[in-house]
Automatic annotation (TrEMBL):
UniProt domain Aldehyde oxidase/xanthine dehydrogenase a/b hammerhead: residue ranges: 32-137
InterPro entries: Ald_Oxase/Xan_DH_a/b (IPR000674), Ald_Oxase/Xan_DH_a/b_sf (IPR036856), Ald_Oxase/xanthine_DH-like (IPR016208), AldOxase/xan_DH_MoCoBD1 (IPR008274), AldOxase/xan_DH_MoCoBD2 (IPR046867), AldOxase/xan_DH_Mopterin-bd_sf (IPR037165)
SUPFAM superfamilies (UniProt xref): CO dehydrogenase molybdoprotein N-domain-like (SSF54665), Molybdenum cofactor-binding domain (SSF56003)
Compositionally biased region (Low complexity): 13-23
Chain positions covered by the region annotation Disordered: 1-26
Species this chain originates from: Pyxidicoccus parkwayensis
UniProt protein name: Xanthine dehydrogenase family protein
One of the Pfam families matching this protein, by short name: MoCoBD_1
Length: 781
């Protein structure tokens, strides 16, 4: 389907399963502890793996001595880079070895791997490995890394500043000449932190190698069986057909389990040891060795006319991608693409850098670069509203993109529902009353309310699915999509049940296995329900056609008069008593004529190529933009003026979900995304000291607990069915986090008048903002 093609009518489900808050089939096994995760799996003769991390942020490796570790009783294999193929991996830039080769680029980077009879022996062996280093100067600030005299982490660029993995330029209109037409201009610098994914289940892999064929089998906690297969084959220099990946239950991911090195390292250990190896990270190792959200520094300038029309925006974004590029180029692309915000701003100049530093690599994380730029954008829009004397929601409404308008770069907005989201948020939050009441609620306490408008995307890249009718009329659905805990298996089973009109319990949903599952790129990018649901619905449509072909012969009626009815039945319109069951049709197909009823569908989301006639483009990686989705988020806070502590009292999160396949699951996504965004806004931040991560544990890294979460987070689901998602469904997983931090920051400013431009808004930072406000007021008086 062309992105400019007329949208087709949204199909309607058969029966009532779509739109129902059905229980998740895996819920009972999870709450009773019967669910099997990778760390619960055992194979005969299984060994335990462990990784040795670098003690330095930047150093040259001079020599290895693993003899004492190999001599330790119970140790079966010890690996360093010299034992592995000289291959680097990476989704865009091939710059990362499995184990550090030549030099280390961040403290904690894996340098050696051990397999032993138990975890304690493996850890003891790590202590016996002797590696000599030559310590090199480190750079821990992304802006400093671009200076001409900065230490160079990778091959120096042929032009431009050092340590730049990606440089993007996007320009529309005449941004250099339009500022004199603006009646209000806000110019600020914003900073966002490196955030850790804190999935409940640390990264875990169990690998075995067939002694006769050398074929590798991997069980792993991942978001993508097929990317693990490709990366492992690439890193170990074997054909992909020699790697099989199976995915058990997954305890969360949020982007942190996409492009990983732990699977090929574990496979290499299993091959070297001649036995299965399980590598399970401790929480500390996971935090020090895996990845984080990109920290960012954003210089943004926005101008508007006195009637509230936003006219111009200039943005400079610097993403800290850490020691390796990882998904940094894509994160920079998304950050650039959304830096204009969900608004019609005719004159825009955006420059974005993804920069290497001697820190933990940064990669994909829920929102994928959008939370960073939305924080800057939405805080600045609020300040612009104040300068113009306009209500913050009113200013957003005057500039909100509508259906048929164009995003930055020219992509069509096919379902522009931001206005509907903002208007509903204003209504359900009782916005006007709360904004107008006195901010002082008790001595030393001030209360305020803030809003953020959000634009994001559903869909990305390719998916496929197979649907097969069983002999008894039940249905098997197979895809490569991974349910990482968000409940996608349930929603996708509802799609199949709704498309065919069978009870949900008649749908079996297979676990991902690269040997048997149809391809799916990844669970991420708010794409699974939207993209995989699309191909399941397409496959079900093909099954329906086969059902009707057989039913026409059985019922002696033309196909045009047939219809699906709830319960796995094909009937004839206007003849209510004339029906045949799916089981009868399956029997005819299997034993009389035609063969098994089975269908497959595949889809690559049609990407929009940026229109270079309207947008000057430089350095943007090739990637699809997705189907636009919109939300509005409102937060009410209370600020302690003595301590600076911020408490979020209540929140409203309004999302256009297109069609809520499972309303309870969609509401749970909204609430979970808000809580994760609350951590980003107020408490969560990875901190480095002298090149080392200073808080790699749950005692030092503060995620919101039950007492930190608002008593009420109100998820409001709008249903504007549109687009190629199943029954008009749109994504909600990532968009639910994007606007939380700016909504909270705007509420703090409404309460106190102090603008927090760096998150998390800790008590100390809020107090500094309060003091800065008082100093400014004193000077002006």
């Amino acid at each position: 389907m062309s992105r400019d093609a007329k949208p087709r009518p949204v199909p309607q489900p058969v029966g009532e399963v779509v739109g129902q808050s059905v229980p998740r089939p895996d819920a009972r096994e999870k709450v009773t502890g019967r669910a099997l995760y990778t760390d619960d799996l055992h194979l005969p003769g299984m060994l335990h793996g462990a990784l040795l991390g670098s003690p330095h942020a930047h150093a040259r490796i001079l020599s290895y001595d693993t003899s004492r570790a190999k001599a330790l009783p119970g140790v079966r294999a010890v690996l360093t880079a010299v034992d592995l193929p000289p291959v680097n991996i990476g989704p865009v830039i091939k710059d990362q070895p499995l184990l550090a080769r030549g030099k280390v680029r961040y403290a904690g980077e894996p340098v050696a791997a051990v397999a032993a009879v138990d975890a304690a022996t493996a850890r003891r062996a790590l202590e016996l490995i002797d590696i000599r280093y030559e310590v090199l100067p480190a750079v821990l600030d992304a802006e400093a890394a671009m200076r001409p005299d900065a230490p160079v982490l990778h091959s120096p660029p042929t032009e431009g500043p050092p340590n730049v993995a990606t440089h993007i330029r996007l320009v529309e209109g005449e941004p250099d000449t339009v500022w004199q037409r603006c009646d209000a201009v806000i110019d600020d610098v914003y900073e966002t932190p490196a955030q850790q994914h804190v999935y409940l289940e640390p990264c875990t892999t169990l690998a075995s190698v067939d002694p006769d064929t050398g074929r590798i089998t991997i069980h792993t906690s991942t978001q993508t069986a097929f990317r693990v297969q490709a990366i492992t084959a690439e890193a170990l220099a074997v054909p992909m057909s020699r790697v099989r990946v199976q995915v058990p239950r997954v305890g969360g991911a949020f982007g942190g389990k996409v492009e990983s090195t732990n699977q090929p390292i574990t496979a290499a250990l299993a091959k070297a040891a001649g036995a299965p190896v399980r590598l399970t990270f401790s929480r500390t190792d996971d935090m020090k060795m895996m990845r984080s959200r990109h920290g960012a520094r954003i210089h943004m300038r926005t101008g508007a006319t006195r009637d509230g029309r936003i006219l111009a925006r200039q943005v400079r974004i610097v993403f800290d991608t850490g020691a390796y590029a990882d998904d940094g180029p894509f994160v920079a692309a998304i950050g650039s693409y959304f830096a204009r915000g969900p608004y019609r701003i005719p004159h825009v100049s955006i420059e974005c850098f993804s920069v290497y530093t001697n820190k933990l690599r940064a990669g994909a994380f829920r929102g994928f670069g959008n939370p960073q730029v939305h924080f800057a954008s939405e805080v600045q829009v609020d300040r612009l509203a104040e300068a113009l004397g306009l209500d913050p929601i009113e200013l957003r409404l005057r500039n909100a993109l509508e259906t048929g308008e164009r995003w930055l770069g020219g992509a069509p907005v096919e379902s522009g529902t931001l206005r509907a989201c903002l208007e509903r948020a204003r209504e359900v939050s009782d916005w006007h009353r709360r904004r107008a009441r006195p901010s002082t609620t008790a001595p030393g306490k001030r209360r305020g309310i803030g809003v953020a408008a959000v634009g994001h995307v559903s869909a990305l890249l390719g998916s496929s699915a197979t649907v097969r009718l069983n002999e008894d009329g039940t249905v098997n659905v197979s895809t490569g999509a991974v349910d990482t805990g968000q409940g996608s298996d349930t929603a996708l089973a509802q799609v199949a049940a709704g498309a065919l009109g069978v009870p949900l319990e008649h749908v079996n949903f297979s676990r991902p296995d690269t040997d048997t599952s149809p391809y799916d790129w990844c669970t991420g990018g708010t794409r699974t329900t939207f993209t995989v649901g699309h191909v399941i619905a397409e496959a079900c449509e093909q099954v329906r056609e086969q059902l009707f072909e057989h039913a026409s012969a059985i019922l002696e009626r033309p196909v045009q008069r047939l219809e699906l009815r709830p319960g796995g039945v094909v009937g004839v319109r206007d003849e209510p008593g004339l029906t045949t069951s799916f089981g009868a049709i399956a029997g005819r197909a299997l034993y009389v004529e035609g063969g098994p009823i089975i269908a497959s569908a595949r889809w690559l989301f049609p990407a929009w190529q940026l229109d270079t006639r309207r947008t000057t483009v430089g350095g943007l990686p090739s990637m699809g933009n997705g189907f636009f989705v919109f939300a509005a988020q409102v937060a009410e806070v209370e600020v302690d003026e003595v301590t600076g502590k911020v408490e979020v009292l209540e929140a409203w999160s309004v999302h256009d979900v297109g069609r809520a396949l499972n309303p309870a699951a969609a509401a749970g996504q909204v609430q979970g995304g808000f809580v994760q965004g609350l951590g980003y806004a107020l408490t969560e931040e990875l901190v480095w000291k002298d090149g080392h991560l200073a808080n790699p544990s749950m005692s030092g890294y503060k995620v919101p607990g039950p007492l930190d979460v608002p008593v009420a987070i109100h998820p409001v689901l709008l249903e504007h069915s549109s687009g190629p998602g199943p029954f008009g469904a749109k994504g909600v997983a990532e968009v639910s986090i994007v606007g939380v931090a700016p909504a909270v920051s705007n509420a703090i400013r409404h309460a106190t008048g102090a603008c927090v431009r760096r998150i998390p808004a800790t008590g100390e930072r809020v107090l500094r903002a309060l003091l800065a406000r008082e100093e400014t007021a004193a000077k002006e008086s």
